[in-house]
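Lab notebook, bench 4. Still working through the backlog of constructs that have no structural model yet. Next entry is a single chain of 445 residues. Request: give me the structure tokens for it.
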Amino acid sequence: MRLHKTFKQGVVLLVILFVMASCGNNKFPGFKTNENGVNIKYHFKAEESEKPVLNSVVTVNMNYRLEDTVLFESSKFSEPLRFPIIEPTFKGDLYGALTQLNIGDSVSIAFPADSFFMVTAGLEELPEFVVPGSPMYFDIKLIDIQSEEEILSEQTAMLKMMKEQEQLLLKQYLEEQKINIAPRESGLYVIDDKTGTGSLPKAGEMLQLHFSITTVDGMELYSTEGQSPVDIEFGKPFDTKGFDEGIGYLRKGGKETLIVPSNLAFDSVGRGQIVAPYTTLIYRIELLNIRSVAEVEKERTAKAKAEVASAEKSKMEEPVRIKGYLTRNNIITLPTASGLYFIETVKGNGVKADSGSTVTVHYTLYTIDGKKLQSSSEMGQPFTFKLGENSVIKGWDEALTMMQEGGKATLVIPSSLAYGSNNKGPDMPAYSPLVFEVELIKVVN
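Model written out:
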């Protein structure tokens, strides 16, 4: 029996989150230990009613928190938190508690934070913000109880409604676009926007395409605009059945629009969070060229050789580019042993950052030629990470241990301490030295 995605996610969520160890009341003042060993405090007790049983599906409002920090709030999610009741994992766990609740009951459950992070989450050590032995609390309100069969029936009804909605949206689209052609035998609509020349593609030929994908109600999903065209071997599955069929109707230089009903796309399953079940897709495709596999491989080989040559040239020119930046900006600072240039612009007077510190940083990234690429300040999103765990480039790990809270610095980082031979796009090709302006906002040791 296949469960709806939300239902299955609820199962996984609960398996991950709620394996808790019971503890005594001496650790949790104000809580009572019930017959199942759960440390529980009632905020509101509803009238006696149906209670959850094994395999019931419960809907809850839930927060979990430390004494002074809320870590999770179900109210912030678009869908209610729903999960099935399973056999208790140990005496006094959440499932044992829920089987004693009535709809409308509001309670808190307490347990050691160590159990949650070390046992449930499977961490090797406690997060820095957790004091060993400190309590953790789940605040729960039981909203509803349903059987597994009721949930499946509900999801079946929802999918039926979505399927009917697809037909309405498709009809509306055809009317608005004044499209009166009949679909192909498969159900695919093919609109010839520009007739190409030459023969139709043959299996094994490489088709060079530009294309875009939108939903029938106009949401853009993908486009090659501004990118290199895509080479696809005709006859091999590439995207949806509708796309794979539709490109076979193009000739070189031709353009077409494909209307692809869900039965030729992602049907009742959808595609993750991107494409909902029963979604009709619209493709706009241009066939630029038809070539042999050998021609395309030859082109790819030549391109790869050119990229290697360009990278070697960049590697040789890197020291000159760094020297030019230093000269233009009157920087006389000597590099560290690793090659990092650290130019302190504001000396901090707070906590010193060390390997293992959790730091919060604002930064602005420039190319060595002065082009601004990104700024956390402009985005209003400071970056927090732990030093010394290789979660950032080596230049950052080294430079920030030279700073104190409140400090600012300019970092000239050679590629050996950044992305090395990796190509990170047109603005950061292989062997690109980088310039960062950084501000160390906070340090937690």
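Notes after review: The radius of gyration is 30 Å. Residues 317-444 form a domain with the Chitinase A; domain 3 fold (CATH 3.10.50.40). Flag for follow-up if needed.
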